[in-house]
Amino acid sequence: MQTNEVAVRCRHLRKTYDGKVEAIRGLDLEILAGECFGLLGPNGAGKTTTIEILEGLLEPTSGDVEILGKSWIAHGRELREVLGISLQETRLAEKLTVRETLDLFASFYRRPRLTAEVMAEMALTEKSEAWVGKLSGGQRQRLAVAASLVANPKILFLDEPTTGLDPQSRRQLWEIVRQFQGRGGTVVLTTHYMDEAERLCDRIAIIDHGLTIASGTPTELIERLGGHHWVEFDATHNGSIALDTWHSLPGVEAVHEVEGRVVLSVREPHQTIPALLAALQARGSQLLHLTTRQASLEDVFVRLTGRHLRED
Amino acid sequence: MVADPKTEIIGPAPPTADAGPTAIQSENGPWKGYRQLLLARLTELKREPEVIFWVFVFPILLALGLGIAFRDKPAEISRVVVVAGPQAARAMSLLKASPSSRSIRADVLPSADALNRLRLGKYDLAVIPEADGRFRYRYDPARPESVLARAAVDDALEAAAGRKNVLITSSEASSEPGARYIDFLIPGMLGMNLLNSGMWGIGFALVDMRQRKLLKRFVATPMRRSHFLLALASSRLVLMLIDLVLLLGFGVLAFHMRVMGSWVSILVIAALGAFTFGGVGLLTASRAQKIEAVSGLINLVVMPMWIFSGVFFSYERFPAVVQPLIKALPLTALNDALRATILEGASLPAQAARLLVLCFWGILSYVLALRWFRWT
Fold it and tell me: What ipTM was predicted for this assembly?
């Protein structure tokens, strides 16, 4: 369902709070209609500030935002009709039922979807007469997304949609996002879960300290690291062997050391590992530890910033 | 930094189910949002037992309690102790023979005991018969009932002893509805309720919604902000109507209160009060991010008016210097207007000055509130 039409575009976006704290320091994004775009970054990176500027809820200090080719200043009301927005942690009225809450949100739009249909799609029909206060975390989050879907939006903005949810609820939400995308919708979401970004997003911008430090499809980003796989090992006499030695092994693209262990970035582990074992044996050192894994976005982030995504 | 717009989905295959077109409701009219907001607000209030209690039950309980505590008692009975002695029996028989014997209750006690009980307030007056046949009174001039007892007993003893009245007088009791404490209280409670309702029902509710990010969520939709505020105000107007009927109805049924003015005038004044305090509530809530902060602000606004605006007692007791300030308070204007209409049957034009004071506060509050109000 994807065309080359641009759904969301921002240029040179800056946001300074109280004239001091620079939350965003010149951000450019171009999100295409029909894609699922993820803003990935640690807490405090500026993701929420960015998405709220795109949603027209925050004014940027400088820079332009265009949604479906229109600006917030000139077409605010019109844009509100076609956007579905789910904020981070909105606490909806506890004493209204699911149906009442959705009816309320539907009443704000000129042409909303049928609430019964949205409830069915979000697996909330059974809970339609339950008070919001009595829902589980996953159900509340589905209701929050449902409240944005009744708008029948063209673009869905989700700020940290699965934070704090159990694995099953997360999967349910991912499925909902895919369904929406399947109908031709555009999704913009923020997350600090790499697996979410990797599995759900067509393209990602990695944000840190208010700047995009990398962007592209998840595979592109991982490939840009110089390898799909990591081989990590520890052996006796390891310290006495220069790291450069391992460069000569077949398929090794990069070598570094993490906490006393050697980490090789490789293209083809099945070529590298036998050669590695042979090389160790030749030097008379014994293997103490060996693991291999696929590179993830986490590795991309660690590589780019020297920090882990989840550390604060 | 714009990456090459390549499309590739990582992870499970794209969706298959439910990807068809979606059903659309018939088009919503421009007032649909307002109606739904009002409905939601009233539904929420109905499900909040605290609201029912504080808005409807508490004022009636308070009026009932105060009405009973300060009700007009039947003619006061003076409690008198006669100090035991040879002349005590004569004093007792004189009191019994007097025309006002029914309003005097007398006991005979030994001297020390009698004076001690007088001191503790168990008796209003001690009658000490002297050896020479004279009676000495001991009383506390600071206690009105003590002064009253002295006069009553003196009069009773003199009359019983054969005093001739040179002037013929008669008296009748008067305790008409309209002049009692409960009549003063009910309009005051109504005013106070309108103040509380605006401050807590609008001010507090708004900050609560801001803190929950519900306000932000609403402005992320095409909802008209004016409809939101209007719905909130309308919900209070509905509560105001119920409150008015309950409190006045209670006064009429339980205390035989008489409503002298027209119900239309009362309604107009109450609605104006609700509008004004809705504005003050909105202003109080315009910036606060936390409910703790707004609670403090609300108390700051509400407390002085509870004390100075004549809710429970007349503000005429305060020094003359501060009277103009007190009269400039919106609750004073509202209470005075309600009392004049309910108790004296004053017409609306006669209340123009008070209604203008209310309008001034209301309009000022709305103007400032809408300038400062933060949705996020």
Answer: 0.85
